[in-house]
Amino acid sequence: METRQFPHQTLVFKSAVISRLLLLTLIVLWRTLLNPYDTSASLNPDDCLIDDSRWRHRHHHHRSSNNSIGSKIESSIVWDSVFFVRIVQCGYEYEQTYAFLPLLPACISFLSRTVFAPFVAVIGYRAVLGLCGYVVSNVAFLFAAVYFYRLAVVILKDPEAAFRASILFCFNPASIFYSSIYSESLYALFSVGGLYYLMSGSKNIAVICLALSGCARSNGVLNAGYFCFQTMHRAYDALFRKKRGYLAILVLIDGALRCICIFIPFIAFQVYGYRNLCLGRSPDEMRPWCKARVPLLYNFIQSHYWQVGFLRYFQFKQLPNFLLASPILSLALCSIIHYAKSQPKLFFSLGFQESNEGQDFTPVLSSSGIDPKSSSKKKGNENLRQRKPIYKGGNPVELSVENGSPVNSGYLSTSVLPFILHLGFMTATAFFVMHVQVSTRFLSASPPLYWFASHLMISPGTGKRWGYLIWAYCAAYILLGSLLFSNFYPFT
């Protein structure tokens, strides 16, 4: 599993395994020691509301198991996990269930019909669905951690910094959701994996992965922004540097098609909802969103059922939730401000001007990316020129003696810029639009958060203090999250 380019990959995988075992142990421990706040988790109506032959054959499975193991698994299906499991059982019965995208239910359904099908007779159908959900989430996280490390090595060009950031990701403050029947693990796998393939030059695989991330969580469609950024710089390069307008048009068409492909799964699901809930109904029976010029079911559900909207959560009674989200929002804001202050021309020009070190901005995203297979050859050629390492603000930078131009490496490198822009949009959305307490898990799959934290941990003079603070935050939220969430108490 180890390679020269990714020397700590095995350690990252082992750390991911240890973190998932820790979380599952904490879930079992807290469920054993404490009584859940809401005991309705095991309740399950016997019949599906949808009168469809696709679901009728499953009705005989719906009754809860009398098996003690099955009962414990069923009682651990809490919060949004209830919706995901119910969707596997009965499909999308209610309008609000369309807020839960189909990738996780599809994976659970596949495993329950194949690998775990023999266990239905032992622990019951719903318990098997719960077990499959736990397997999907935890296994997906293991591979997400590996891709996270690979992406960090490619972008930061520093295996040690990438390793520190990856360990932080393995024990991130939203860890409870990555070990529960939630879509966070699948989103992280396909989002981070897709970005790794994009940076490695495998654009077709990247499109597939990022499109799948949009099947797991709605914010997966925002990953199209990376292709937009890439297309923008490649078109600029073709038009203004190479003076080839025809090439610029081809670049724009290619980028637009790839972005559309990333959006297609999410749009298709909206069409599916419109077909089920709007078509064949009289105007009086139609829901308001069905009559809209652009009938977006997801937006209506978020606004109507969960009161999601711009500044709608800014109420005095929500102050505790703002406090709960303040650590992750503060870390995100500091990471963006630090990058902007360190690279002002680069940041505010979106990379089109020279950086403050006098270097022409030629980001990884502007070309075909970094190919891990050929990176060793490039490194060999670079070593032909004598280099000497220097440190700027605690961030390792190399200067070529030949021309004195800085080489991208570390958190402040040009390659990090698109990730910072993406994080900025996500942070603003979490703070101004969403239920702010969801910020902890909403931002938890954003790589620059961990890259910045890793950068802080080696800052001269204050690195040790930052390290203690960051790890204390992660540990506290892992303990608090596993305690509250697993016992049906509110937590993000």
UniProtKB/TrEMBL annotation:
<keyword id="KW-0808">Transferase</keyword>
<keyword id="KW-0472">Membrane</keyword>
<feature type="region of interest" description="Disordered">
    <location>
        <begin position="366"/>
        <end position="387"/>
    </location>
</feature>
<comment type="function">
    <text>Mannosyltransferase involved in glycosylphosphatidylinositol-anchor biosynthesis.</text>
</comment>
<dbReference type="GO" id="GO:0004376">
    <property type="term" value="F:GPI mannosyltransferase activity"/>
</dbReference>
<feature type="transmembrane region" description="Helical">
    <location>
        <begin position="322"/>
        <end position="340"/>
    </location>
</feature>
<feature type="transmembrane region" description="Helical">
    <location>
        <begin position="246"/>
        <end position="272"/>
    </location>
</feature>
<dbReference type="Pfam" id="PF04188">
    <property type="entry name" value="Mannosyl_trans2"/>
</dbReference>
<feature type="transmembrane region" description="Helical">
    <location>
        <begin position="466"/>
        <end position="489"/>
    </location>
</feature>
<keyword id="KW-1133">Transmembrane helix</keyword>
<dbReference type="GO" id="GO:0000009">
    <property type="term" value="F:alpha-1,6-mannosyltransferase activity"/>
</dbReference>
<keyword id="KW-0337">GPI-anchor biosynthesis</keyword>
<comment type="pathway">
    <text>Glycolipid biosynthesis; glycosylphosphatidylinositol-anchor biosynthesis.</text>
</comment>
<comment type="similarity">
    <text>Belongs to the PIGV family.</text>
</comment>
<feature type="transmembrane region" description="Helical">
    <location>
        <begin position="416"/>
        <end position="436"/>
    </location>
</feature>
<feature type="transmembrane region" description="Helical">
    <location>
        <begin position="176"/>
        <end position="198"/>
    </location>
</feature>
<feature type="transmembrane region" description="Helical">
    <location>
        <begin position="205"/>
        <end position="226"/>
    </location>
</feature>
<feature type="transmembrane region" description="Helical">
    <location>
        <begin position="103"/>
        <end position="124"/>
    </location>
</feature>
<dbReference type="GO" id="GO:0006506">
    <property type="term" value="P:GPI anchor biosynthetic process"/>
</dbReference>
<keyword id="KW-0328">Glycosyltransferase</keyword>
<feature type="transmembrane region" description="Helical">
    <location>
        <begin position="12"/>
        <end position="33"/>
    </location>
</feature>
<dbReference type="GO" id="GO:0005789">
    <property type="term" value="C:endoplasmic reticulum membrane"/>
</dbReference>
<keyword id="KW-0256">Endoplasmic reticulum</keyword>
<dbReference type="InterPro" id="IPR007315">
    <property type="entry name" value="PIG-V/Gpi18"/>
</dbReference>
<keyword id="KW-0812">Transmembrane</keyword>
<feature type="transmembrane region" description="Helical">
    <location>
        <begin position="131"/>
        <end position="156"/>
    </location>
</feature>
<protein>
    <recommendedName>
        <fullName>GPI mannosyltransferase 2</fullName>
        <ecNumber>2.4.1.-</ecNumber>
    </recommendedName>
</protein>
<dbReference type="GO" id="GO:0031501">
    <property type="term" value="C:mannosyltransferase complex"/>
</dbReference>
